[in-house]
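User: structure tokens for Peptidase S8, please.
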Amino acid sequence: MRKIFFPAVSWLIVFSLFLAPLGFRAHVVSAQTPPGRELREVPREVVEAFKDGMTVEEFLSRYDGPIPAALWNVADEPVSVIVEMEKPALSKRMAAGGTGTPMRSTEQKQYAAGLKQAQAPLVAAVQARGGSVLGQYTRVYNGVLVRINAREINALRQIAGVKAVHRAPRHKIDLTASVPLIGAPNVWNAVPAGYNGSGVRIAVIDTGIDYTHASFGGPGTPSAYAGNNPRIVEAGSFPTAKVIGGYDFAGTNYDASNPMAAIPVPDPDPLDENGHGTHVASIAAGLEVKDGSNVLVGAGVAPGASLIALKVFGASGSTDLVINALEWAMDPNGDGDLSDRVDVINMSLGSVWGVASADDPEQVALNLISSLGTVVVTSAGNEGNRSYITGAPAVADAAISVAATTTGFVTMPRIQYNNGADQAPYQPGNPFEPALTATLIDVDAVDGDSATGELCATGGVSSGALSGAVALIQRGGCTFEEKINNAAALGASGAIIYNQAGVSDEFISMVTGTATLPAGHTLRSYGLILKGYHSTVVTMGPDSQLVVFPSGSPDVPASFTSRGPRGYDSKLKPELSAPGVSIFAAAMGSGKSGISMSGTSMAAPHVTGAAALIRQAHPGWNPEKVKAALMSTAVDAGGEVPLTGAGRVDAEAAVFTKTLATGDPDLV
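Assistant: Done. Predicted tokens:
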């Protein structure tokens, strides 16, 4: 993203997300002619507050002017902002004073229609100035999502009814063992009455859902997915009995971070084209998938719940369409009456460092959504154990922010060695389908005395040493793509890469790029064992045959999970933890298979599913009570409170608790 450089000084001013927006409002200047180049043209408060720089978009979304000279050359670049209108959103009107005072259906519809009508002058002005309207909000926020040249923002501020302009929040897409760990099966099978989420509707705001997968009651064949056009709804394909609704707000090629693809092309089909949303939805509420007596994919936490797929990402990239989806979730039939709003929302997405203040549009929207009775669950982020780095939207007051912990198990395909007597797990990179049986060659043994087995070059490897072999390669020194391509160039038939010393010994999802050679990743502990079987025959895979392996202790905070508290006021975030390391759930496009993924994206849907079980068991509980039940019954996750919150979720204890302890709303 472009940065502001001020030529009259020798240092760079870079925006810090720790700082709340300043109260300063400079006088408005004409955008027709550029100002001079003196430092005084930049508000003194800006110079003093921002120590390392900020983007053009960030500056213009916070200040009326004057426009610094350093901005002038980039003022014609398009930016995405949310223009906030003066009147309260429908949700705020309905929850006036926090009492939840009911509005009749006709009153809701009339009020929402009035808000949209009042936005008409703004919409017309945006279009007249060459901009695009990407969303109009009335239900959870009163505002308009706009894509427009930066120099036009000050003019939008002057339109009657406009309250403020905010930078559009932008996000990225930060079971057979984990579901029993949190006690969900005990809730399903409880006597005299169990709960599986039946009657509860979960909206998954993500990359969509592969509703053709057997985990969601689909045909369960790869051909069903391959034959489904993600831009249209084929007759009889969607909605389904499990995925009862949804919408694609983005389109295949949408990417908010790419100026050439930042305009969404929505369509009615929320079919997943990335895989992330499918995995998340399967954890929250997927069905068990079996092949005879063999479980291929375990049931999600609330397998009786219904799912709604709200697709805000394209096939790759980032998004600023989250409020579009929140509006839909609060009024699925679009009639202006919010009585059909969903019960639980899962948001396994985020941006680093949270937000600068409680006025952020998504924070406002999520708090209003919760005030009307919908539970919101978000992932804390994957930026590691650094204070205050928990992301947005997880920092919203009403959101249940979820950190990631270990399960003590991983469900993965296997490497068979020692004449088939022993086995080790691997995380697939490029698939081993069908299984591959070949001689294992430790690259460290054949690449020369001075090399380290990393295979970042091919010159030192003995001629023919890897021909037809499975290459055992140490991580580090170069990319996975380079290592795998080098193995292929030397004639290998497959590759297994293990962690080097000095890094956290965890499974990771390799980015293989252009490499096509079958390849997988394993832990250093297993890699060192396999080194002892150099020049012996091993069998890799197939990826579809899975084994549950022990993997350290349960309830240990994941190395990647983001640490709180909230940046602008040190309020407790995250509130809870859940399993998020090597979680096995449905794999997009596979029909019946699964895949392991790690991240707080996988932790959040465990809590979402638990919230669905609570909503079924206690339909009268509001989101505050649901959060209280989850937090007060959590298991100590072995980490500090700013890292793991109250602890690891225990669905059974939360559903059947007899005591609720609510926290101070200014702290929790």
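User: Anything notable?

Assistant: The longest strand covers residues 409-417.
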